[in-house]
Structure formats: C-alpha cells, structure tokens
C-alpha cells in the first residue's frame, strides 16, 4: 500500500506552478555544480583546444524524465555548449535547448513560441545574472542556495540542494506537486 508523500510545499507556491507547461533550466550552477573542468585533447589535434567535462546528478535526470511523464516540457537555455551537455540532454530526451547564448530571454521566448505558450505557463531555475530575464518573467522562479544574491531575491523558491546535487530535482518535484501529479507518479515506486 502506497503511503502519502513526505514532500509538501506552501499552497501559494503550488498555485504559482499549477499552470506551468514548460520548465527552463540553466546548466552551469543548476544541472551541474558550476565547476568547469577542461582536459587537453590528444596530441596532434589541430584545434589546440580543450574538451569540457561536466558532472550531472542522476536525481536531476530522473526529475526531468518525470516532468515529461507529467506533460511538462523541459527546456535548456545555457550560455555554454559542450559535447557532454548535448549527450546528457539527448539521453534525457530533451529536445528544446539553446546553447551558447548569454541573452537568454529571446532564446526562451523562441521556445515558448515553438510550444505555443506564454510566460504564464513557464517555470524556470537559474543561478546567475544571465538567468534573471527568464526568472523575472516565469510564473514560478527557482534558484539553488548558492545562486547570486540578485537571483535569490528574484526566486519564488530556493532549493535546499545545491546545483548539480539535486536542485533541479527539487524544482521538478515542486512542479509535479503543483500539477497534482507527484503522488500518482510516486505510487508505482512504493509498491
């Protein structure tokens, strides 16, 4: 027999998220811990470049998959691009993404237009100034606890977990609860 979920959120927060149909995620500092790792490419590489290595948390990946199961579209808008990031998003089935953009509002608006949605149907999580134009327009804005103070001030919800350590999952769980789908999606795992 399934027990009642242990997570809960204030009703006013759940109301903010009840109409969210798209969730925007920043990457560095949200889906990762914000650290940037570079490794040298093998000798003979003509580019003279380094390869970026990123570390992702499985909790966050599961949260993104649960959003999709609940009919919420995950979308990524990030200032960087990397092979590692593209591979992770492909593995998670995330198809709406904009890479290498510091001006995140137009990128998010393009995704909203593709989906036929308005800002009132958007949730977002970010950690630094480039995320503010998206966070300030979203119906529900979230930030990890290590976010810049200006971002923390704009957030409706600050996660307990850090970026790359489950912050995105907390945001996903909040959206699932707001949509009334959390208990239903949890139940098969409690059998």
UniProtKB/TrEMBL annotation:
Q: What name goes with this protein?
A: 3-deoxy-D-manno-octulosonate 8-phosphate phosphatase
The entry assigns this protein to a family as follows: Belongs to the KdsC family.
Query: What keywords would UniProt list here?
Result: Hydrolase, Magnesium, Metal-binding
InterPro entries (alphabetical):
CMP-NeuNAc_synthase (IPR050793), HAD-like_sf (IPR036412), HAD_sf (IPR023214), KdsC_fam (IPR010023)
Recorded hits in PANTHER family, A to Z, give: HAD SUPERFAMILY MEMBERS CMAS AND KDSC, N-ACYLNEURAMINATE CYTIDYLYLTRANSFERASE
Q: What lineage is this protein's organism placed in?
A: Bacteria, Pseudomonadati, Pseudomonadota, Betaproteobacteria, Burkholderiales
Record-linked Pfam families: Hydrolase_3 (PF08282)
Q: Subunit structure of this entry? A: Homotetramer.
Q: Does the record carry Metal-binding as a key word?
A: yes
Cofactor(s) recorded for this entry are: Mg(2+)
